[in-house]
Every structure is written in C-alpha cells, then in structure tokens.
Amino acid sequence: MRYFKETLYDSVCQEFRIDKVYFESRTEHQHLIIFHNAFLGRVMALDGVVQTTEADEFIYHEMMAHVPIFAHGQARKVLIIGGGDGAMLREVLRHAQIQATQVEIDQAVIDMSKEHLPNHSQGAFDDPRANIVIDDGIEFLRNTSEKFDVIICDSTDPIGPGEVLFSQDFYTLAHDCLTPGGILVTQNGVPFFQLDEVTTTHQRMKKVFADHAFYSAAVPTYHGGIMTFAWGSDNPALRQIDRQTLERRFSDAGFRTRYYNPAIHQACFALPQYLLDELAEQKE
C-alpha cells in the first residue's frame, strides 16, 4: 500500500493513502501528482504539499472568491493568480457580470487538472468570459496596463514558484493594478503552524494598503486548524458591509453555495486571540 507523505513541516506531517495514481511527473516548474483517496476523492499535490482535494475544495475556493466579490459589490474585472486546477475560476465566474483573467505559471497544471480533476473547473476554462494567461504572476503584474476590481492570489505556499507571491514587491504591484477601492486577497497558510507567514504578510501589506486584515476558514485538508486569507484594500468600509446588504447581493447573484453565506462572511474576519496578540506585537 502506497502513501503520500506531505513534507510541508519539519516536525509534523500527515499522510494520505494513495488508492490510484492518475498522473505523476516533474513539470517544467515542479513535481506534480494527482491521485485518488477513498475519502477525499481526487487529490493534487505539488512539490510534496497537498494543494486541493475534491472533498473539501469548495470551502477554500468559495471563501477566497465570494468574500471579496460580495464585499466589493461592483466588481466587473477579476484577476486570479495561480489556481491552475480551475476551481477558483469556476467560483469567480458564477458571478454573471464578471470577466476573469487567470495567470498560471505552469501550463501542465491546467492540462492535467482538466483531464484528471474535471470536477474542479467544471468547464470554466472554456467560458468565453475567461482569459487564460501562462506567465509568472508577478511578471504579469509588472507588465500589464490593466486594472482589476478584485485580485485573488491562489498560490502555493512560499516555497519554489510561490515564494515571490509573498514578497513586498508583489503586494505593491498588486495594489497598483487595482481600481480605486479594489481588493486583494491571498492565501496565507495555517497560522498555528505558519505564524511567520501571517506576521511577515502583515508587515509587508501595512506598508501598501490603507486597510489590511486577515479572515479565515477551516479547511480540513490543510492540517492545523483555521487557514488565513490576507485582505488588502484602500477602502476600509468594504470590511464592514452590513448583513442586509450582503444578503441582498447574495440573493441577487442567484446561485447556491456549500460553505459561504452572509453570516459566515461577517464572522470570518474575527480571529483567535493568539493571532490577534501576535499581530498586535508586530505593530509595536
């Protein structure tokens, strides 16, 4: 019996039984494996770290997509950096008014996800409102003249190709590519094990955005409790949208979700005390 042993942390790990391998190869940028697990369904891992599973991907993708889009209220152009499995694009395009640009560094991730993780994208790559660009995310930001209402950075951890997407340069470039009042959200790891990621992001984003914060969701695959998402905008009011407005926007959107709802939206910006204490120390 073969097991996939995750290598994200030095002193703690989790293992996944591999019931069937659909694809395994070293691409131009990273090692990629897609396999089946009896409980989680199809699982994709990059460079020894599980990225997504069929069983719980909806939590991660709904929270990264719908929190900023419903908070903004007028988003028309969304940029996704990373997200080669297509699930983030799927969720973003559920908003009928949106045109999406997706920048993915590794064409192989898209190709293999289309073939072996079709439930993630559900045809999103073929949607005429989607523009797929194969490029390094930070280079795209550096060279584009486009402006976006929402930027979603669905990256790997700050290891290998994903490392630059946690840099001061990246946050500055992303800020400059937002329309006035636009929102940047990024995945920011599991703070119980990756507290340095949160504090480093906090130090960097506060130099760029008038309003920066973190929100969270518990995604079972990402071992260690809640996962944080970084939030940056120059409009502080967007984190304070009232429940009635969120409910109206959600109802008008006309689709059902499995995790996100307006109550979750309002609650997700509440953080545990250990994390608040750490961030407060960083301000000193």
What topology emerges from the helices and strands here?
Layout: E1 2-5, E2 15-18, E3 20-26, E4 31-37, E5 41-46, E6 49-53, H1 57-72, E7 77-82, H2 87-92, E8 99-104, H3 107-116, H4 118-121, E9 130-134, H5 137-143, E10 148-154, H6 168-176, E11 178-187, H7 195-205, E12 211-218, E13 226-233, H8 243-253, H9 262-267, H10 273-283
Parallel strand pairs: 7-8, 7-10, 8-9, 10-11
Antiparallel strand pairs: 1-2, 3-4, 4-5, 5-6, 11-13, 12-13
Helix pairs in contact: 7-10
Task: Give descriptors for this structure.
32% helix, alpha/beta, single chain, four-stranded antiparallel sheet, 10 helices, 284 residues
Notes on the protein architecture:
The chain is an alpha/beta fold and 284 residues long. The protein is built from ten helices and 13 strands. It has helices at 57-72, 87-92, 107-116, 118-121, 137-143, 168-176, 195-205, 243-253, 262-267, 273-283, and strands spanning 2-5, 15-18, 20-26, 31-37, 41-46, 49-53, 77-82, 99-104, 130-134, 148-154, 178-187, 211-218, 226-233. The strands form three sheets. The protein has a seven-stranded mixed β-sheet with strand order 9-8-7-10-11-13-12, with helices on both faces. Strand 5 (41-46) and strand 6 (49-53) form a beta hairpin. It is globular and about 55 Å long. The chain starts with a strand and ends with a helix. The model has no long low-confidence stretch (mean pLDDT 93).
